[in-house]
Design goal:
8-stranded antiparallel beta sheet, 45 helices, binds flavin-adenine dinucleotide, alpha/beta, binds iron/sulfur cluster, 26 strands, 6-stranded antiparallel beta sheet
Length: 1004
Amino acid sequence: MGLREELESRFGSNFSDSITERFSHSADMGFVPQLVWSGDIKLNLIPDYVIYPTSVEDVVDLVKITLKYKVPIIPYGRATNRYGNALSVDGGIVVDFAKMDKVDVDEVNSQAISEPGATWKLVDLAVQSKGLQLRTFPSSYDSTVGGGIAGDALGIGSYEYGFISDNISFVDMVNPRGEVVRLEGPNLALASGAEGITGIIVRAGVKLRKYAPTEAIVLAFNSFDDTVKAIGEFYREVIPAWHVQVRGPSISTNIADRFNAKLSRGKWNMIVMYPSTRSTLVEPKIYRIAQTFNAEIYEGEWTGWWSFNHGVVAALRSKGLLIHQHGLIHYTKLVELVNELKGFLGELGKLEPNSGFDLDIDLEKREVLLVNAFTEVSLKNEDKKIIYDLAKNTLMMDSFIKVGGSLLSIGIFAHKYAKNRLSAMGKTFQQLGVDRYEVIKKYKEEMDPEELFNPGKVLEPKKRGKVVLEIVGKQQEALRFRFGIGLAKAIVPGGEVQGFKVVKRYLDIFADYAMQCIDCAMCVTVCPQFKLIPQTPYAPKGMFDFVKGAVTYYYLKGGVDIPDDAIVELSGCHKCGLCDGVCPAKIPISSLLVRLNGIVAKKMPEEPPVDVPLLQDPELRSVNDNSSDIILWVGKNLVDNPNVAITVLRLLKLVGAKAKVIGTTYDSGFMDYISGGEKLNEKMEKNKSVLASALEVITIAPEDYRVFSEAYKDYSNMNNMRMGFEVSPIELRLLKSLQIDGNGEEIYLHAACYATPYVGEVIKRLTDLGFRVRKVEGCSGAILEKNLGKRADKMARALGAKYPMLVTLCPLASLKFKENGIPAKTLVEFIAEKVGLTTVVTSGTKAKLELSDSEKQELRNIITTSLLKSLSSKSSIIADTVTFTSSGIDEYKKIIENVIVEALSDAGDGIKVHIKKLLENKKAQGATYDDIVNYLSALIKELSNIISTMQLDPIIGVVINQVKGLTSEQFDEGVLRQTLILLVRENEKVIKERATALTADAAS
Ligand SMILES: Cc1cc2nc3c(=O)[nH]c(=O)nc-3n(C[C@H](O)[C@H](O)[C@H](O)COP(=O)(O)OP(=O)(O)OC[C@H]3O[C@@H](n4cnc5c(N)ncnc54)[C@H](O)[C@@H]3O)c2cc1C
Ligand code: SF4
Ligand code: SF4
């Protein structure tokens, strides 16, 4: 057994090596820039595996496995730091603590016992119910306890309580030998600020204070001078506040404008927070300071998140490009620091592209200031991300050091300041007689001689990740240019935004927004999808990090291939909009995810019409009345679960209703609707004749309800179609007509996404009938994932594990649940049971034939061979044109596109021949027409699945080798690789359509 197998067998579904997981764990707020990893420096930021431990035992076993195979191991909280601290620099295993977030409250000792993956917010909320609250926490309230301890910085409440390490009573750590050790007192130095290089934090005691409501007062000073003096007064007067923060004039204006925050525009705003119980101690002193400096003074609002750093970063980033550097200095050095910064950044308090800077300052109890200096450049967001203004950042770092301060964090970028940072920030440890830098260094040398634990951070690496040392060289290089602006073209091969452009082709506008995301993780906390499957790619932040990871991968490997299943995995979303509501960067996340769904839907091939003979049965046929103006829309969405359609017909018979039954060969056009509506008109035209005279359309699938009630209404006016019908979901119809006594029975009702408009009414009617309804939210993604992705399976299992039986409004979700071993039924089936109807499946209505594993494998081989053969047949013409690769992907694409499309068309034809053979074999074995249709449909689905999920790298690699053998010309292999990958991905529909150009008739 090798490493991969051992990890998979030990961690099962908590192990992943998919590109979705790996890419989404390859970026943090700092996002390592192209300047750093392009050219010679190959920082391998993409982990090979991601593990989600759920217990201390998991972590111990994982450490033992990493020691056995000598692979790097990198602990990961929520990746909200900005210096690449939680990123791999040499592949290996990232350990994401999203599933270790339990919190217990030890009221006697006034502490929370927290697992590392719990966020500060979670801890705070858990303890507030016991009359307690956090003393201090990073202003990134949604980051984790493990990450906070390992980073050991200042945050909200530091004026009274100091550093995070001052507020931790103990840490349990799995050391680099795989032993669990408890660290207390001076020994805490081993874990605090060590950024995961000395071991993995698995539990911690977080000190708490008594709960009291927080008051806030804002003092608005007219000048920096007054502000500096007022800070001095604060320390001299010993004002018993809890948190004190100062925001510069430009920052204040931006936050006030963008977020309507209570700050004075253009002034130096000092926000003072204190427990209401101390008002009489704090307020007189503050009023005296305000009077002395002629400052405006008014009541503030501390609960607004703008009071945290998010507001600053988000407000400024939306304006232009932000470069900032945190540092710690003694408060008496503030003027000196400003003079240093002025030397190369320009005027203080004036933030404009390429000139000026502003400050955001937290006060700490030992007269230390956490100063965050911000400056702005005129580059576009994506340029900045790719280029990174290392020059300015480097100068800012140096300024903090020059005035005797230290940096807040080291990460990948600033090892040379490690000693300074750990000592200057370690005042608590100094008081305890501990030199934290020496302790960590010695321990690391003894306990982790192989440098497996988060290599390349804090200490200069000697073995693994040595490449980070070359960053300093790049920084020096950057400094030779004026602040790095315009640098990209000069020193970055291939132009500044090539990787970004490539990834954007797969992810469209999603990529632009990924560059605006400030990685605060607020969306992660609220997302119900993440709550169900606490894995990072399933939360919006992870999706944006995926984009950045993919850009990185492009530069590392000379190309990137993002198959559709990766996008499906990313795009599953319940459309609740909660993330949109919290995102400080104001990214319209949920609508982006809906659009991402559309991109995938667009690529799905049209399945052949399958006629499920529902009306062969005389009993069911009696419900049909072709002259009725009420339509029962069964439609193609029911092909997968025809049992539900049969049950509906039986129930309608029971209530004596008649309707014109529209069978499974009809398509409402739902997939066309969600993929942007291109073909929807065509579908509407086809359905016009059956819908034109209808007064009511009853739908069974929520997807059909959505498309009829939204799209048909909107578009019919545009297209001059008369669509005067009402749309009714079948459940509401039945619950109105049938007499059922709920008798207090509890139902877990799965509210499928597309049923949102009517789920409230369904719940009301069920409740009126006497049921106790518990609403269960969560998108099963079943409609898109009939073919692609594993997310729906995970979602189904996660939802199902919580409830004894799910009753869903969606026939496809019901199928998905059942496929995953979860007891589930549709509400229609549930109603049928209540009225004593059995739901026997009649012959001819069986669910679709599934392909056997060997048939699937055979199809995969056929596709791979055909694609390789057809692309290989073009290798001489490719070889003949390779010199044009020097013009870049866009230009080369234009030259070679027709050739590749022709090859894909040939591949499709080749596959079709094999499919015909397979069908003939089935016929020879005596299969009926129905069987053949079902088999063809199953083949088409599997074909689509294989093409959209296969990794193209190996096939393209063979073609490139052939090309190399055919030409002696120099060419850009990276451009060739990426162009071929993109052309195949963009045109994969050609293969699907050619291969499946068989109708059901042709199959007969
Ligand atoms: C808007 C915004 C505001 C911020 N405000 C502040 C602030 O006020 N104060 C502040 O200090 N920081 C702040 N930060 C930076 C960042 O949020 C903090 O550094 C935070 O503590 C990181 O926590 P995390 O869970 O995201 O950890 P990550 O970023 O995932 O990891 C941070 C470090 O901890 C290590 N680590 C994570 N989990 C463990 C574990 N279980 N065992 C051992 N090592 C581990 C990682 O390897 C890495 O080195 C802010 C960031 C943002 C985006
Ligand atoms: S809209 Fe989607 S991504 Fe956003 S919080 Fe809701 S489920 Fe999560
Ligand atoms: S998408 Fe918005 S809420 Fe989520 S991490 Fe990014 S900035 Fe924060």
